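Researcher: I need the complex structure. Ligand is pyridoxal-5'-phosphate. Inputs:
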Amino acid sequence: MLLNMLPRVIATSSRQALSYNLDLLSRRAGVPLLVPIKANAYGHGIEQVAEVLAEHPSVWGVGVATPQEALQATPLFREHAKPVLLFGPPDVSEIDKLMRAKVHFSLTDLSELELLPDHAQVHLKVDTGMNRLGVRAEDAVELGRTLAAHGMLAGIYSHFSSADDPNTSYSHEQFQKFSEVLYALAPELIKVRAHIHMANSVGVLNYGSWLSQLSPGVTLARPGLAAYGYAPRDQELLMPVMTVEARINLLRTVYAGETVGYGRLWQAEQDTTVAVVGMGYADGWPRNVTGKASVSVAGEQRPVLGRVCMDQCMVDVTGLDVQVGDFVTMWGPYSHAGLVAQWADVSPYEILTGVGHRVERRLGP
Ligand SMILES: *Cc1c(COP(=O)(O)O)cnc(C)c1O
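Model: Output:
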């Protein structure tokens, strides 16, 4: 077996799962989607995910965080004429390139207005209480009018800070603030048919009924995490998109009384067959799962032994029919990244975006 002919770790995105989530979210939101593909499409691989998004009828366009991501994304969506919206501030040195690539800009602060050329397509970001990016609601109306007058107003949006909080009062305040801006700008927004968007994943899942009350109405929703199959409360509605498989590099017997790995955190009570699996924390398998994690080997959940290393981890495969070169499922549709996140005491966002550079991305059925 020539091991180096095989990839060490493969992250495969399911075309079917992604399409299913997009259909579901677009139906829930009642509008097409602007799907965030920042951070290498939440770790799934921007090119792999783009193959599905570019052709999916419920996808209006995609969102990215940085100019570099925008320039990477535009060629993947050009043929389908789907816009790429840059959420983050434009970078002065990149504006010409971004203009040529027809990227949609966000106006995230008053100071950016003079940077943007006259015919730029701009989505005005209104801060309604997140206090991250966005102009204050008090300034938004005048700015919106200025943009509209220059033929630059392509959209307007805001962002919930806590749409997963069971106490919805803060979200409601944000909604009200945004609502007032939209009402004041209604003539301009309607005239230029500007896009209006506010909901992220939890916003779509929790606030569908409110969002339909905005006037002029929302035209897009921006679910990221849920498109990839994860949500804090409605997990059972969604299909996790990513499956991560790692190769067994070595099988060894560890005798009763011996220990495994750094810090000797696991000791064999009886003779144990241990698989050395080629995924470690540098690949995104969290170091902090000692004593909690299991992975799927030949159809069974088996415990990870001791501390996770940088490039490897050890798994108890006693009694299983496995060979060097076989692949172990680290997470997938059944034992999913949400569980890994719980074991590691982090969010699913961090598990997905933490999948490392050395991991090969694929698109599967
Ligand atoms: C990342 C991002 C989203 C998506 O958030 P999720 O919680 O993943 O749904 C939506 N809007 C903006 C502006 C973002 O940056």
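Model: Summary of the prediction. The pocket of pyridoxal-5'-phosphate is lined by residues 36, 38, 87, 159, 200-201, 222-226 (CB under 6 Å).
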